[in-house]
Amino acid sequence: MHDYFNQSLETYIHAALFILFQSCFLIQLYFLVTNQSRLTRYKPVETLPEASVPISVIISARNEADNLRENLPAILEQNYPDFEVVVINDCSFDSSDIVLEELSARYPHLKIVTITEHVRFKTGKKFALTLGIKAAKNEHLLFTDADCIPASPNWITYMAANFNQPIQIVLGYSPYKKTGNFLNPFIRFETIKTAINYLSAAINGDAYMGIGRNLAYTKTLFFSVKGFAAHMHVISGDDDLFVNQNATSANTAIEINADAFIYTDAKTSFASLFRQKKRHFGVGKLYKQRHRRMLSIDAISGFLFYILLTSCLVFNFEPLLAAGLFMFRLIFQMIIYSRLFKRLDGKDLLWYMPFFDAVYYIYLNTFGLIGSLIKTTEWK
């Protein structure tokens, strides 16, 4: 009787876990079909659009002398009829001031805003950006970072062309440069997966985040919502929290033409990557409730899918069926991602899909937990 009870209990547990595995499979399939597949049907403008709205490019820089010297000319020399570049030198103690003065002598449309360190008042990036926005003379603002470089001289043109009524927010894309560093493939993979999610959500009329390396919005929108006041107490979130709180189905557009990409260097060590992601994930708990729920369901279901798949294979419980569901999902992913990874400059990463996808969901849950528990106190 005791053996029969144990055998029945084990059968029930196996059945329950397999049902959970199937549920995770269906949830993952739902995200692929209803969210991510929409981006495959989106057709970016291929020919250079006409755009003439005056643009202010805003860059907040702290101790970025080398990056400013290397990258800023590519922004200052954009092929656009009417723009200025506002650089906020945020409490730098390197040679940023000298580099900026040299560049301002060559480029009259470069405007410099300097913030000096105060012993009692520590400033963050949101404060610096607010001063830069106030100093900007134009209504339409385009944001990037000092360590970023445009893919082409037409970056501003493609981003600015989206500013038609009633568009107030434009979400761009910023891939990492390809290098031989061992972390580089996964960092690029994660960046593309993140981009697929937030760009697809925007197309679906429910934008929840943007990337500050390539983001545009209007000054009117910024001041109408009192800027970053709602989350000024959080060190990060100048990009994704602002978009999360202010984007609507009517006022948001995306731009993913390859000439509108902004490239930057990926982290090269676990320590630097940990600090960066801890900061990024720390603001997720302040997203709107429906966005937190959506992202949590995707992350947890993906994590459980791989855990339960491994359990089914290891303990020989319906291994063929489990493997079949895995292959079906993988093939469906490859059909959708083959076009998107190519469009987002990650075609070479498709070969890593089976392994990196599993690592991606472990990474999401790990940093999601860390971000919810640890407070970040510095932006740079």
TrEMBL record:
In terms of superkingdom, the source organism counts as Bacteria
Recorded hits in InterPro entries, A to Z, give:
Glyco_trans_2-like (IPR001173), Glycosyltransf_2 (IPR050834), Nucleotide-diphossugar_trans (IPR029044)
Does the keyword Transferase feature in the UniProt annotation? yes
Keyword Transmembrane found:
yes
Q: Which residues form the Glycosyltransferase 2-like domain?
A: 56-189
An example of a Pfam family matching this protein is Glycos_transf_2
Question: What's the protein called, per UniProt?
Answer: Transmembrane glycosyltransferase
